[in-house]
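Example 3.2
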Amino acid sequence: MNDVIKLLNAHRSIRKFTDQAIPQGLLRELIQAGQAAATSSHVQAYTVIHVKDAANREAIAELAGGQGYVASSAAFLVFCADMKRPTEASARTGANVERGMTEQLLVATVDTALMAQNVAVAAESEGLGICYIGGIRNNPEAVSELLRLPAHVYPVFGMCLGYPAHQPEVKPRLPVEAILKEDYYTEDSDHVAAFDDTMQAYYQSRSSGNKNSDWSHNLTPLFDSKLRPHMRDFLVKRGFTMK
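Structure, written as tokens:
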């Protein structure tokens, strides 16, 4: 393995941070590294909000489900899918712009995720830890109002950054054989069963938050009820009408 692959395989979500600040120049470099990610048709359909106001960070921490590390991390970023900038740029050329297409939502969301993952890898290469915060979609309207997001922009997730104050174990992933198929999709129930055993051993032996569970049981809260049913109406209100 080269150093880049080793870094990727060592990823952990960090939720406890030291008081050390992130130099502004380094933060700018991380965003530039994010911008170097692949982007559909060079649209670059994203905007990143660096939330510095302490009161706003406390508010977002609560809106995200009481995740205190949103407020305590050295820096907190909100990654937004942004179709406002590219559609307005196109309109200025005289184009008859059609907004609200489902493909625009997909492009902006994928662009944002690719950009953010570049930021995450760049941050970890500099000794920082990160934690994605999908919980901002618990209350996306309130987060959007707090950040003054205009139409055709929506918050996809947040990211805590800082210097780690703990070193959690690396969480196992599904075996490559379950993910990588040759030519056609094939069933992988045997791999899932084996992975459940792996995850149960991990949960029972990790240094913090021990529990008796496995991968399949951990998925139950995501799929035994309608998860964030407000998102469709919220996205429509944002201008992503999914035509």
